[in-house]
């Protein structure tokens, strides 16, 4: 259980001023009266607000450190995002501190609750796969730490977000399968709770509907994001004789690779018999046989845009939250060639 912290709401209540004023005062914003700022700092000290802060530290907030919260660093997408983040951070004299959740809700909550806010100027966060329990992020935002979400975002939190166009990317992928002659298209996707999953599922459904094809919920399998999950999803889809799909749209390339491996184990020709398309454009797409069709995500640009937005929030306490959606690109390869 989270231990009781004094928050900026407590300071605001004690001084009978707004939470926004307290937040701006703690960050030394230009539009706060010096007398008000000093009252806030004195009350923060009196209430032991974040005990590792002292009055000087509260005023001189800049540490030139940015936190980056990630589910993993071992796949192409996240390593490319980090490259984009790091380039912008370096250009502006900031250091990165990485926090890995291994896609665990419990680990994510623990990391966020134990963050030393005095050691960071802001946080870039890609959430783990869980059921919209993002109170831990709301807490640190209320405590005055700027947060920008990317890729997998906390949809209902008022904060800046940077995403690729999951809906239209999925629509393009499924429409490509239809144009290639496939008619019984399944979708192997991620956890239901994630907005990324829902957006790609909606793109899948609407592409089918546009071309007069019936959406069958039994042709959608929810699981994790790994290659092993892709293998398992194929086992589920092909477990009933007569219900096998003739194409697979995978939520990412790792699941797409898993699907190819599972289909080949069943002596199914990938492309001519069952088409497969992924989402990411991982370099392994061009190594696997057959090469994997995919939707290329702008991972590097996601990193750059996310870091740029965070720096704007750090520089200006009342910078308004923004949502940025970057376009994706269809790349057709051998896995969706019927002949």
UniProtKB/TrEMBL annotation:
Domain HTH lacI-type: 6-60
Protein's UniProt keywords contain Cytoplasm: no
One Pfam family this sequence matches: LacI
GO MF term (any one): transcription cis-regulatory region binding
Superkingdom to which the source organism belongs: Bacteria
Entry keywords, A to Z: DNA-binding, Transcription, Transcription regulation
Protein name, UniProt field: LacI family transcriptional regulator
Top-level taxonomy: Bacteria, Pseudomonadati, Bacteroidota, Cytophagia, Cytophagales
